[in-house]
Amino acid sequence: MPAVASFSPPVLALTQLDTALRERGYVLLAPADVATFAGVRLQALDALTPSWSALCLDHYLKDGGRYRKRRHSCFIVENGVLQPVPHRMHYQPLEYNALHGGMERWFEPVAPETAAQPAWRALILALTAACQRQKPAARWYVEAHQFRIDTSDGVGRPTPEGAHRDGVDFVAVLLVARHAVKGGESRVFEAQGPNGQRFTLTEPWSLLLMDDTRVIHESTPIQPLDAEGGYRDTLVLTFRAAGFLGENA
Predict the structure, then answer these.
(1) How many domains would you assign to the chain?
(2) Alpha-carbon distance 149 to 21, whole Å?
């Protein structure tokens, strides 16, 4: 089997988060720092992991694939308080997602027992606070996506739409698990410049936090390492100050 190049993520110390995000538009943290950032033990984050085995098939893939499973829920953070909102669609304009944009997509919600875990709330609140330090806002609208990309089709595509922005203010991508796959390289590029970086997230609860107004991102396809296949699990959280996308669509 041909070797696939793998570049280690250029992680920074937690103390550099705000400066790096402000100066270059993205930052990577190692798992231990993510736990410290959220104010929980790493084991509390690990307690969320089993819920990725109960995701539901994404029926909206226009390539006809069956390689993506997901759940999706929305929240509002105001004055440091996290509140769920009634289950709603996920919507992206075509300008941000040429493949799956322009339509209402309804996914099964994040399981209540998952969203009730202290680490879930702590992680979202810590990330919202980081967004608030970059761009003060009265209220933050948060969408949470649990993804499993597997190799049931031979190849799994984390971002079938290609390099993109999400149309929000900030995007957090956390690797939850990676099993028996190659590929899945993360790529971040300046939206208005020539610079970019590529790396592979391999450690559970590694964090890539991006200013979505300044960078575009993608993840390359994954392939199985053996005949039994494998998967890559991520938690993607988006933060927008001007309301949920599609509220007035």
Answers:
(1) 1
(2) 27
